[in-house]
Amino acid sequence: MPIRTNRGRAAVYRRLWGWPLRSPRHLVTTIVGVVVLVTTISVVIPNAIKPRPNGGTAGTTSTVTTGSGGGNQVGVLPTVTSTPLPTKAPSPTPAPTSAPVNANAQLRADMWVDAFSRFEPGKTTKEQWLAGLEEHTSDEMFPRLQSVDPANVPAVIDQAVKPIKSFTDSAEFEAKLEDGRLIVTVAKLPEGWVVTDWTKVG
C-alpha cells in the first residue's frame, strides 16, 4: 500500500539511512557499493563526452578539410600533368612549276657540256680542264669536279644538249656519251644560272 503521509515517508528514509549502521556486514556492503558506483561513473562519463577520432564530438558531423598537400590525401585530387598537343605539321613543299626552257639555262648547259668534253690526254692538263668548267659550275659542286680524273671522263659523241625537264628556277639537260648519257642540272642562283649537278647514266 503506498505511503501517503510525510510521517510515513520520513520513517522509510530513516530505515534506509540506518541500514548500513545495523551491522558491520551492512557497512562493508554499503562501502563496496559506493566505490563500485563511483568507479563506474568516473569511467562512463569521460567516455561519453570524449571526442571521436575524426576530430568531432559525439553527435556532430565531421568535415574533411582539403589542403595543399600531395595527391594521396583524402579529398585532394591528384595532380594531372598536361601533355602539350602536337604542333601542326608543316605544309608540304609545293611541287616546282613547269615552265618553258630558259634561254640562259640552255646556254649554260651547252657551255658546261662543251668544257666537260674538251679534255685531251697529253695536251690538256687537269688545271686547264677545271678552269674551263669553273665559271659554269656552282661553288658547292666545283669541289666534286676537283676530285675527278679527267682522263676517265667519257667522251661526248653528240654535242646537242637537249632539255628533258624545265621549271621556273631549274632545268635538266641530256647529252649522249659513248657509253651512256650525261644528265646535267642547271639552277637559277643569285649569281645566275649555273650547273649544280651532273650524273652519268648507263
Secondary-structure blueprint:
Blueprint: H1 6-18, H2 24-49, H3 103-116, H4 126-134, H5 142-146, E1 156-166, E2 170-177, E3 180-189, E4 192-201
Antiparallel strand pairs: 1-2, 2-3, 3-4
Account of the 3D structure:
It is a single chain. By secondary structure, this protein is α+β, with helices and mostly antiparallel strands. It is 33% helix and 19% strand. The protein contains five helices and four strands; from the N terminus they run αααααββββ. It has helices at 6-18, 24-49, 103-116, 126-134, 142-146; strands spanning 156-166, 170-177, 180-189, 192-201. It has a four-stranded antiparallel sheet with strand order 1-2-3-4, covered by helices on one side. Strand 1 and strand 2 form a beta hairpin. The radius of gyration is 57 Å and the shape is rod-shaped. Mean pLDDT is 79; it is low at 55-71.
Task: From the structure above, extract its key features.
202 residues, alpha+beta, 33% helix, 19% strand
